[in-house]
Amino acid sequence: MTKMSGRTTWLLTGGAGYIGSHVLHAMDRSGHKCVVLDDLSTGVAERIPVGTPLVVGSVLDTALVESTIREHDVRGIVHLAGRKSAPDSVRHPIFYYNENVGGMISLLDAAIRADVRRVVLSSSAAVYGTTDVSPVSEDADCRPENPYGESKLNCEKILAHASTAHDIGYISLRYFNVAGAATAQLADRGGDNLIPRVFAALQQNVPPKVFGDDWPTSDGTCVRDYVHALDLAAAHVEAVDLLEQRFTRRTYNVGRGDGSTVFEVLDTIKTITGCDFEPTVVARRPGDPAEVVADVTRIEAELGWRAKFDLSEMVASAWAGWPRTSIRDKSAV
């Protein structure tokens, strides 16, 4: 797709987060003007490029969102802010609905008031739940198995209804499992994703946990489609470029179209890190589907986007950015 001039200013909610900062840097390199709104609850201000304005605050603050849009003459929004842990959402469903669905409503309210009509939504493969087919296409039935997935599906529906009522062009990007890092500064420090969870366990010299080995998969562990944060960020740039060129309403899977079991990921981590360990298998977590792998036919055909990085490259880049103090390389944990 032809790169646009970048004259449109884009608001990135959650732009200081792990995924948000990768998107921000990719857009900055592509010549897009950006402003970031982030409450810094999980985001890191130092991730933001010099010269990019940062507004510290919550997307739930509709007045702040609207004033930010008007002050910076924002004409498009990439909405990344929200909560993303499926297991945590089972424990705290009201919090997740308030943060994710409430945040979507607040954002759209501000956008409509300020006449913003372009939105890229950070959605999730969690909207699918356990699917009847693999890989799963965007047209598949959505049957989320946890409040997080339900909240993201509700965000998609709210955006679609607002689009019809207010002529908003939008692209919803359904992320699969994001991993890897462009630089150490942008690396994932969260405790929810598999790869950083294993790294944290290695750092603490304890066995990593595997949540169930009795799933209906090749080795009994869950299957996920892992996509590099750099690839995901590139997909956002393509989505932004498309919305700058023309009005559209589309939903795209963002994955590699290839699944890996938990044990396969752990084997890759052993190879990359040189750490020898045996995981501890514990009970399944509520709300986890057995297998979710992306059908990426649509995004390849319509946006010309395809993932470039494989699982080994994701793990290697994540490991390069991980503080390894006290990790006993090449020893049993």
What do you see in this structure?
- By secondary structure, the protein is α/β, with parallel strands linked by helices.
- Helix 1 packs across helix 7 (about 230-245), helix 4 (about 95-115) packs parallel to helix 5 (about 145-165) and helix 8 crosses helix 10 (about 310-320).
- The chain is built from ten helices and 13 strands.
- It starts with 8 loop residues before the first strand and ends in a 13-residue tail after the last helix.
- The strands form three sheets. Strands 3-2-1-4-5-6-10 form a seven-stranded parallel sheet, sandwiched between helices.
- Residues about 1-5 and about 325-333 have low confidence and may be disordered.
- It has helices at about 20-30, 60-70, 85-90, 95-115, 145-165, 195-205, 230-245, 260-275, 295-305, 310-320, and strands at about 10-15, 35-40, 55, 75-80, 120-125, 170-175, 175-180, 210, 225-230, 250-255, 260, 280, 290.
- The longest helix has 21 residues, at about 95-115.
Secondary-structure map:
Elements: E1 9-13, H1 18-29, E2 33-38, E3 54-56, H2 62-71, E4 74-79, H3 86-91, H4 93-113, E5 118-124, H5 147-166, E6 169-175, E7 177-179, H6 194-203, E8 209-211, E9 223-228, H7 229-245, E10 249-254, E11 259-261, H8 262-273, E12 280-282, E13 291-292, H9 297-303, H10 311-320
Parallel strand pairs: 1-2, 1-4, 2-3, 4-5, 5-6, 6-10, 7-9, 8-12, 9-13
Antiparallel strand pairs: 9-11
Helix pairs in contact: 1-7, 2-4, 4-5, 8-10
Pathway: Carbohydrate metabolism; galactose metabolism
Catalytic activity: UDP-alpha-D-glucose = UDP-alpha-D-galactose
Organism: Fodinicola feengrottensis
